[in-house]
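Supplementary Note 3. Input sequence used for the single-chain structure prediction.
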Amino acid sequence: MTDESDSTDAGAEGAAGDGPTPTPGIHHVTCVAGDPQRNLDFWVETLGLRLVKRSINQDDPGTYHFFYGDAEGTPGTSMTFFPWTDLPEGEVGAGQVSRTAFRVPEGSLGYWEERFDERGVDYDAREERFGETVLPFRDPDGLPVELVAVEIPDDDPTTAWTAFVPESAAIRGFHSVTLWLDDAERTEGLLETMGLTESESGADAATGNDRTRFAAGGAVGKYVDVVETDRQGSSGRGTVHHVAFQTPTDADQSGTRDAVASLGLRPTEQIDRHWFRSVYFREFAGVLFELATADPGYASDEPLDALGERLVLPGRFEDRRDEIEAGLDDVTVPRPETEFAANRAD
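The predicted structure, written as discrete structure tokens, is reproduced below.
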């Protein structure tokens, strides 16, 4: 992904001429990791997400790019990582996504606490936030993550991956991201321009300041929480590189890009990322935002039942396969040896 400085029915009505089609919510979140094998082991085996794509950083092809998601790689479910082994540990601060939260079924947090105890995962006591119960924890690189217990409706667009975790506890896509900003006013206006609506506010446990929630119209990854802080941070292992928002079609993306540019921000031209088309820009407080289309999707170049099984190289890199593979660390994708692999309906 670049580091440029400079759906549901959330859409159809919003395009009626008053501005861009509202985003349904988060598309993916991309983070910085260290050791690639450790990252795979944790996100696949411990958290039970599916490796839906094993590829390379298209701006740094000597580095892996891992994509984890639900069983089908549904938009709104994929957490992705660049494992840069030579980077120092980062520090979360203003101008960053400070927390990434996932949805899990109501009643499953006890399962997760027991699992974290068994596997030595660093987690904190549950907290209540806007009427929901949140379980904060950290991945092996120190990345702050949360599980939020919610009711998963029968018609939910996500599909649980149950190779390592039963369906009754499986992660079902994003719940929210939290932005830490030194000055939130213009960013809040940007979120409203993108189609999110301020929904509620309350005290933030981590900073002692206010937390304001903005909601999109989709079913997955619909919330963005904004917290003002003057804490200083640094990029590196255990931090978020960027957050991508859904602009399902090229027309949706173009409209949002124009609206962003009209606010004085500097979005890139559209960039083909092989599984989606992207536009990038830094919002007013410095967080790197991406706009991502829904198609062609992670199953466009691999059978659905074989996602993540091989190293996929976007077309322009294929003639360099031998060179690229020789420069990457050998990794092994965890294989299920549990009852859940044989009985996905658990």
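The CA atoms of residues 264 and 284 lie 9 Å apart. Residues 12-333 form a domain with the 2,3-Dihydroxybiphenyl 1,2-Dioxygenase; domain 1 fold (CATH 3.10.180.10).
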